[in-house]
Structure formats: C-alpha cells, structure tokens
Specification:
Family: Belongs to the TRAFAC class TrmE-Era-EngA-EngB-Septin-like GTPase superfamily. AIG1/Toc34/Toc159-like paraseptin GTPase family. IAN subfamily.
Protein name: AIG1-type G domain-containing protein
Strand order of the largest sheet: 1-2-3
CATH class of the largest domain: Alpha Beta
Strand content: 5-15%
Radius of gyration: 26 Å
Keywords: Coiled coil, GTP-binding, Nucleotide-binding
Distance between the termini: 32 Å
GO molecular function: GTP binding
CATH topology of the largest domain: Rossmann fold
Shape: extended
CATH superfamily of the largest domain: P-loop containing nucleotide triphosphate hydrolases
Length: 221
C-alpha cells in the first residue's frame, strides 16, 4: 500500500509534477542499505523521474560550520544521489523558520530545473494511474472487510468471556516481548477495555480496586 501511495502521488497533480523533491536528512549515513531504499522508491517511477528531481537536504542547522559541499564529499552515498539528480540540491534549516530566503531560493532552483528540461513536467501514465486507483480501491475494500471480521470476532470473544469465564478471583499474568511488540495492546484486548496507559518508553497498568470481586494483575516487560 505504501508503494501504491508513493506511485500514485504523481497522479494527484495532472498532467504531472514539475518537480520531485527527494527529502534526505543531512544527519543520515547514506550506506548501501539506505541507497537501496532510495532506488526502490524511485524505481516505482520511470527513469525520467530523475530529470525532474532535486535533493532537499533537511537539518541544515546540524552542519554547524561545515558546508553542505563538505558533507556531500564525505559520504559516497550522498554523492551518488546528488549526481543522479543532476547535481541539483537545496539545504533547509529546520530551526530558522524566519528565513524566507530558503523558500525563495528553493523555488528558483525548481524553476531553473524546469526551464532546463525538454519536458516541463514528469508525464503521468494514465493507464498506470487507472490500474493504481483500481488496486487501491480493492485494498481499501479488503481492509474494511477485515476490520468488520475483527470487530465481530472481538464481540464474540467478549460474549464468551463474560458468560463462561473462570470463577477464579485472582489471575496474574506476565506479558513478555520486545519494545513496541504490542504487549500493551494485547493486555487491553484481554481486558476488553483500555487498562494500559501507553507512552513511547513505558506502559503501566491502572490500579485495580481492591474491593472488586475479580482482580487481574498484569506486568509487561
């Protein structure tokens, strides 16, 4: 679905975009894995996409006293990307929002690229656009169907749990898994309500009323 969304992006501005900004943070290490990712994304389009592409480097404030040229020269991966885009790039300072010249200079570079291209914009393949739209509609329909199935299963499980649950008054369970593996979500599904308060780094369980007839204590690591 992500690939379809990326490929469909150029179809949202027919007859095609004048420029494609390839956004890359200057703090990144453009190693072989990163380059493969860039190539896979750009290969979703025709080879002509590179003629209409400009590298937009973000986090220019991270450079300090170093120039962007020095940063590019220090990383072979960045050199490859910049060369692939016809040596067209622009640096964006993420901290200085008052510098209006950043936007003006970027637009000027886009216009210069546009004027230098034989075709003013990247041509949209209408047949391919129709295929992508059909695939996305089919995927959305399948997703809605899956959601309905999951909701129905949850209702059935809840009914079974409430009607046939074990009369044990004190159940202790430990959820073990990697960070972001879904421990909190699993605990909430077992409770059939949101009991785990989640943050990026940790989660904790709401206190259980000691006077409740049934108590469940969860730890998640």
């Amino acid at each position: 679905m992500d690939k379809l969304e990326i490929e469909n992006s150029v179809n949202l501005c027919p007859p095609g975009p004048h420029a494609v900004l390839l956004v890359i943070p200057l703090i990144i290490n453009a190693d072989a894995s990163y380059l493969r990712s860039v190539q896979e994304h750009m290969s979703l389009f025709r080879e002509e996409i590179w003629k209409h592409s400009l590298v937009l480097f973000t986090f220019g404030d991270w450079l300090g006293v170093k120039t962007v040229e020095e940063r590019i020269e220090s990383d072979e991966g960045l050199q490859w990307i910049v060369n692939k885009c016809g040596n067209r790039y622009h640096v964006l300072n993420n901290k200085d929002h008052s510098d209006k010249t950043q936007v003006k200079e970027r637009i000027e570079k886009i216009e210069e690229m546009w004027a230098g291209n034989e075709d003013p914009h990247y041509e949209v393949d209408l047949d391919r656009a129709a295929q992508i739209e059909a695939k996305m509609e089919a995927a959305d329909k399948a997703a809605r169907r899956l959601k309905e199935i999951n909701e129905r299963q949850s209702r059935v499980l809840k009914e079974v749990y409430e009607s046939e649950r074990d009369p044990v008054t004190d159940i202790r369970i430990v959820l073990v898994g990697q960070k972001c593996s879904g421990k909190s979500s699993a605990g909430n599904r077992i409770f059939f309500k949101k009991k785990f308060n989640r943050t990026f780094n940790r989660a904790w369980l709401e206190k259980v009323n000691p006077h409740d007839d049934e108590k469940k204590t969860f730890n998640r690591f």
